[in-house]
Write a structure and sequence with these properties.
By secondary structure, the chain is α/β, with parallel strands linked by helices. The chain has one domain: Glutaredoxin (3-Layer(aba) Sandwich), CATH 3.40.30. It is built from 5 helices and 9 strands, in the order E-E-E-H-H-E-H-E-H-E-E-E-E-H. The chain has a 5-stranded mixed sheet. It has a two-stranded antiparallel ribbon with strand order 1-2.
Length: 153
């Protein structure tokens, strides 16, 4: 669904994490960023994806990746999600959907014959210069870390 592709400049963003701290793309300059968008905290697929990233966090970090999750959930919901599953990475509380829209991951979805607006599970890997190096639109929640690592092997 996203209009962004590899080689495009990553859209800048200014948002807040689960602690209410300001976070922007420029904070990651000089580092590779895995920016993963997911529909909702504490749902089966989203929990599986985030736990897979958590379980492989050290390996991803060794390969030079920073991780940052994004959904439209509130700071409080993110705090609970992080505490419950012991995540080592921050989650952006994009309640106004500014980051979601900038990256083109908010829009019509169909589930069980019903169409509604929601977040399309998508991951962007942004290089040290702020360029999109990889876009994952078909995220495998149980092995997303492997997808990322294989793409940069």
């Amino acid at each position: 669904m996203t209009h962004l592709k590899e080689g495009d400049a990553a859209p800048d963003f200014n948002s807040v994490n689960e602690l209410g701290e300001a976070v922007q793309l420029a904070d990651f300059k000089g580092r590779k960023l895995v920016l993963f968008f997911y529909p909702k905290d504490n749902t089966p697929g989203c929990t599986t994806e985030a736990c897979n990233l958590r379980d492989n966090y050290d390996v991803l970090r060794e390969k030079g990746f920073e991780l940052l999750g994004v959904s439209a959930d509130s700071e409080k919901k993110h705090q609970n999600f992080i505490k419950k599953f012991d995540f080592q990475f921050h989650l952006l509380a994009d309640t106004e959907k500014e980051v979601l829209n900038a990256y083109g991951v908010w829009g019509p979805k169909t589930f069980m014959g019903r169409t509604f607006d929601g977040i399309h599970r998508t991951t962007f890997v942004i290089d040290e210069e702020g360029t999109i190096a990889k876009v994952f639109t078909k995220v495998k929640t149980k092995e997303h870390s492997k997808q990322i690592l294989d793409a940069f092997a």
